[in-house]
Protein 1
Amino acid sequence: MENVVKPICRWGITGEIGAGKSTVAAFITQLGIPVLDLDSIAKQLMQNNEYLRAQIKAEFGDDAYIGDELNRGYLAEKAFSGGQVDRLNALIHPAVYEEVARLESKIADQGRKIIAKESALLLQHGRPKDVDFIIWVQSSREIRRNRLSKRPHITRMDLDARIKHQSSLHLSQHLDKDRDIVLHNNETIQALHKQVSELTSQLKTECDTLLESRI
């Protein structure tokens, strides 16, 4: 029997580091939409995928791992402070793409019609053709820096390097003004929750219309 590809409406959740992407993703999950955290998937693969581990060691040296554990501090310094982020991403992205495709297929088989993907670099190579709606989470630079300073295991040098790198990419230029949404996260968590709730209802309706057109 021929496999039937089930129609899926895909959302992307992205924005610069510290803007509140993960908080928005958590709210959307609470509202019943499955969210794939691409950055967490990448970290899991870097830790557990033997082929990817070998590639990273060959590119960045054996110090990229301490025993079986990923040496996050060392790798972050090499990538962000050493200007080698693109080299690292080129190794990781194929493995992430394959894993995300597997997970999306599994979720679709469960009868879900909407899947969201959260990633800081969702727009790094332009707007993905397979994403129907993108939610760009935006906060002021001062607020983002303050949030990041409270994270454990992140040095000021690393923080500045990450902010500088992502800001230099100008990722928001790839947004489609007719389809994508900019979500401002400069106020309270309650205000953000209200925005996300309203936005989710809006996008669910738009997805219903979109999926009907694909049948």
Protein 2
Amino acid sequence: MVPDSLSDGMKIGGLQRTSLNEYPGKICAIIFTQGCNFRCHYCHNPELVLPELFARPIPEEEIFAFLKNRPLLEGVTITGGEPCLQNDLPAFLQQLRSCRLAIKLNTNGSFPRVLETILAYRLVDYVSLDIKTSFPRYQEVTSVPVDTETIRDSLKLLLHSGIEYDLRTTVVRGLLNEDDLHTIGQLVQGASKYIFQQFLPSKTVNPEFLRREAPAEVELEKFQRIMAQYVEKCEIY
């Protein structure tokens, strides 16, 4: 049994009822949680990261009522913000099991003890872990001090969990270079799957990043070739 929560429930900021690409191989719904401990310049969910933009949370009952009456759904993805900020997350995931859906968690990896509980109780079936850049440059991306040892701990937990996973990096020009990739590659050596996501300047936490150009396909392919030296599979999304 998952330990009882001490909070007043999940703070859910959004629900996407159908996605064909968020959970590999499955039709899923996406639950967006409010709040994040990072302030990544390029983050495309400012309404979930910046408290002044938060809308009134969606009641959990509304989420479960929807999920239990959608026969075509195969899975559900929990993302944010940063879901592991939520004290109720393990208990919420345990409740989600009653919906008989595969569960995927997206996390920035900075809460390894929460992730350890989730993995130990097998509360999810898939985890996507963000690797923002090489560890020495993390604050340059996140805009806040980061104890990168927490990311390292989460990575170790995930690689030895036996649960399906991928590692992900959003490619933004100026925040990632070839030296960073080799440093990251040594950190994640032997990982089963690494994904590069193309930054698209639609909405961002830092408005200045709306003027950044998306990386060219040739740049992404070069990054893919570098990372493929270290991991079993590397893909571009």
Protein 3
Amino acid sequence: MAWNELARDAEKENKEVRDRWISIYIGVVAVILAICAMGGGNATKDSTRFNIDVTNGWNFFQAKNLRRQGLALSVDELELSLKTNPAMAADARALVEAKIKERKADIAKLTNDPVGKEGLDQLWDKNKALEKSRDQSLARDPYFDFGQAFLQIAIVIASVALISNGNLLLIFSVICAALGSVCTLNGFTMWFYLPFIG
């Protein structure tokens, strides 16, 4: 009888130790899940912010380009008026030539403004960089989504394994947690791309 009681006590103690380790495991997976959720939320916010910046940037680019086209048309008209009026008074001719020179300088500044960094060339580069940042944020987001799904599944299955004493469930939970952790890590680092994600 004493041997049976000792065996039951040892079995109970082993179960308590196992349950404690599973509880710690669940806590660790929950922390990784929280980090994954934060990363996913940040990726979503970043992609939205970059998208707004890209939209505003291209609108500004288009407005400057329209202004440049308007100035170019004006220069064409002024040059045409000089050619069609060869008898134009000298002071009027000088005024028209000064306007042409002024507008060509404005066109050049609208095209390339290294000082103010708001020329069309600079805006093009800036907007392309913003598009790249937006696309990177959009590419990160699905990895966080998959990471969250795997980690949540791992927690649920580990909880069921805790109640049912199922070791196969625990192994499946660990596999899901590993996949979720890899997806989370990849969401931050983008070490690899999976063609079916995103």
Protein 4
Amino acid sequence: MQRVHAKKFLGQHFLKDLNVAQRIAETTYKGQSDQVPSTEKVRVLEIGPGMGVLTQFLLKDPNIQLTAIEIDRESVAYLKEWYPELHLIEGDFLKLDLNIIYPDGEFNVIGNYPYNISSQIFFKILDYKDRIPLCSGMIQKEVAERIASKPGKKAYGILSVLLQAYYDIEYLFTVDEYVFNPPPKVKSAVIRMTRNKRRRLDCDEQLFKTVVKTAFNQRRKQMRNSLQQLVGKGNPILEENIFTLRPEQLSVDQFVELTKMIENERNQDIL
């Protein structure tokens, strides 16, 4: 059996432990009984199937209708040979319009995500949050901890707030380096993100993103310093107690309230 050569520039590390692969494959709806209808299959989009270590389990699952996206031509050729029944799209997930793949309805996302673009993948998931009820898979352990982190922790940051605003995060299990070929220099982790009941934030959502990113870009500073560019230097609103905190101290709901304060202040300036 011809194998695919791992390419460093694509961040490829091929999982070789089938037990781990099966556990990851099960995360796409395990524990989500409302997502396993009796008559309809769950539509699942796999990102970066590589040599199909997850794919083989997903294809065997009678509850799943699988589509996969792969950018590596060598992997595409391998998958077409060994999994001819797979609906495979050759392309870059970050550049694809997912509305073309799924013109309507919901779909789950799963993958052994390339470490070098995992954050970009999750930011794109947010763009389709109303259509992706569940996203799971394996990423670098450090990034997984960041996504799942709670306020007050060192790992808490931009990804934590933006993803937790719309998803409930589960850190499922850690994966050691030796189950990969070639082994990465870091440990990995499997997470599951399930869409929460918060359909919309009670604030300007674009401004919310700006506030979060601006605050954490100077995470060691009090927010009266990092956010003054959004309301103007010397603005009295900066004396409010919430602006004396550092960003890692604020929950998602507090960031929403902070955004509403800034939004109201800006509207006053317009009037």
